[in-house]
Amino acid sequence: VQLQASGGGLVQPGGSLRLSCAASGRILGVNGMGWYRQYPGKERELVAIITSGGRTNYLDSVKGRFTISSDNTKNTVYLRMDSLKPEDTAVYYCKASTVWGHDYWGQGTLVTVSS
Questions:
Q1: Cα-based distances in Å from 80 to 3, 21, 34, 75, 99
Q2: Cα separations (Å) of 30 from 36, 52, 111?
Q3: CA-to-CA distance for 86 and 73, rounded, in angstroms?
Q4: Per residue of the chain (115 residues), what is the pLDDT tens digit?
């Protein structure tokens, strides 16, 4: 089973994008899904997570601008990004975590915020 992320691209500051991440098949035991981002030469950082019960948590710098949502029946997770800033430019990765401690990662999608 693989995760496929999509929706990245070039957007002007203040603009919006919606990232999507879907599993190629059924993943059993998913207890949470999330989005991470990585800057060149830096470690991957958590942007937002959502549990199977719907609880969410966000990186402080994106609170109020980004919204994570999911469809548990389809193992799909979304990230709505509004009021984008140049510092949001990064490669964004999705992840699905299972109750058995296994993580599935998507391939990454590039978000570029620039005028």
A1: 18, 12, 12, 17, 26
A2: 17, 7, 26
A3: 34
A4: 889 999 999 999 999 999 999 998 888 899 999 999 999 999 999 999 999 999 999 999 999 999 999 998 888 999 999 999 999 999 999 999 999 999 999 999 999 999 9
Strand blocks (E) in 1-115? 3-6, 9-11, 17-23, 30-38, 45-51, 56-58, 66-71, 76-81, 90-98, 103-105, 109-113
Q: 3-class DSSP state for residue 17?
A: strand
Amino acid identity for residue 79 in this structure:
L
State how far the Cα of 104 lies from the Cα of 21, in Å rounded to an integer: 11
102 CB-near residues (< 8 Å, 6+ apart):
none
The C-alpha atoms of residue 78 and residue 37 are separated, in whole angstroms, by: 14
Question: Two tokens at 19?
Answer: 């990232």
